[in-house]
Amino acid sequence: MIVHALVQAMNRRDEVFQMIEDSEDRDEAMHRVGRASTARAVDSDPACAHTRVRGRPPSHARNC
Known about the structure:
Elements: H1 2-22, H2 26-43
Helix pairs in contact: 1-2
């Protein structure tokens, strides 16, 4: 499980760097990366499948 998570993180590296580069400041970069990470976590959690709308997590995804 840890190896799988590390491989996923390595695959996302370029995507995360692009989000950071596209951000205006540090706070926006942290928000973008955090939001993307939360969305991926909810998408991979079968318990949250019923809350998805059009493939996007709900605004309360952290409470799912």
